[in-house]
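queue> holo job accepted (iron/sulfur cluster)
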Amino acid sequence: MNTPIENKKFFLCYFESTRNCNINCRYCMTQSADPEKEIKGEELTTSEIKSLVIDEVKKYTPLSAIAFSGGEHLTRSDAMELLEYTADSGLWSFINTNGRLLNKKKVREIKKITDGKVVFAFSLNSISKKIHKWSRDDALRTVVKAAKVCASEKANFFFILTVSKSNLETLQETVDFLKKHKIPILRSPYVLRGKGALYPELRFDKIDMETIINPVLRDYSLSYISYTPFFASPEFLEEEWKKLDLSIEQFGCQAAKGFVGISAEGEVAPCVHLLDSEVSCGNIRDTPLSDILKNNEVIQNLQTRDKLKGKCGICRYKMTCGGCRALAYYETGDYLAEDPSCFFEPENQDTRSEHEDIHNKNSAEFIRFIKDQEPWSLLF
Ligand SMILES: C[S@@+](CC[C@H](N)C(=O)[O-])C[C@H]1O[C@@H](n2cnc3c(N)ncnc32)[C@H](O)[C@@H]1O
Ligand code: SF4
Ligand code: SF4
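queue> job finished
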């Protein structure tokens, strides 16, 4: 079916191309918590990925990137072919990687086949070697070395920082280090997906959020993508953001707005953290991705945010934040429930957060950065 392109905004399809990995992190969300329990279905083949993922994403909007993740995408025998196909289709690739298979030669090769339309995303959980290693099954030097290779080869990269109780004590120094080097970060909230369910005690709570996580993130403008709670004002979104004509819709939760997740077997969820859960939006082997994005009820509910419940439903920041839908789901079983990590207590939609000014100010700084700085200026 030929669905017309309606979305003119930047869109990131987070695709876990395989569950296979060359390391074995203790709480990995893509591995089953019960090794006896088989994950249903075969992984998508090369031709399925080309037609059902890449072509469909392009159809939805050519202003897109595919974030190849896993498992470890680079362990797939067709990893390079898929990156090349993505670039030939005019799309950008992100490679979310543990960095183990990267060296100068590989980075050069990837840059060449993608025509430079590639961004590496390295997982780094702490600047403390011990704390990083505890969660990552690998030494800190692996990602640091891979990032240095990217820097010397002028390849784009940033870090993904998974926040859990295990790395809170070094969050400030880790972010300070990345800030010193002006490296953007994306925070991944620890969730009970996959082997994550084995460590419920690692979930952070609203006190951690109020006293550590939000203060650290809100002070660093290059972390301003997709985290909650986020207090940029709705007026800022209306007045400043729209004026800039950016192709990203907003800050805060991106689930189903600028972002969806697809599993190795083709399941779609509004956020990668919600894959393998009941919040499935269907399988691309049965329904084209562009149809799912257009017609699925879960996707629509999250795009409009009309049905958000609890304090997220009455909040002034409903559209600029929206609350983490994954944290809401793992806490209550309901993806529309309020974000359990939010410390803001709105009485009604006029209640303002004391942190609104700093979020507005740093949001403006973040916008300036992505407007001026490649590759972001080319993407957004
Ligand atoms: C599953 S890994 C796959 C990509 C690549 N192999 C790597 O190690 O970065 C993608 C990201 O998910 C994060 N992650 C893994 N388990 C998680 C969990 N239970 N909750 C939240 N994030 C998690 C990792 O820290 C990593 O940044
Ligand atoms: S549900 Fe939203 S805020 Fe939570 S991890 Fe996914 S995109 Fe980010
Ligand atoms: S109540 Fe919900 S929408 Fe409002 S700031 Fe908190 S998490 Fe965000």
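queue> Residues 62 and 90 are 7 Å apart (CA to CA).
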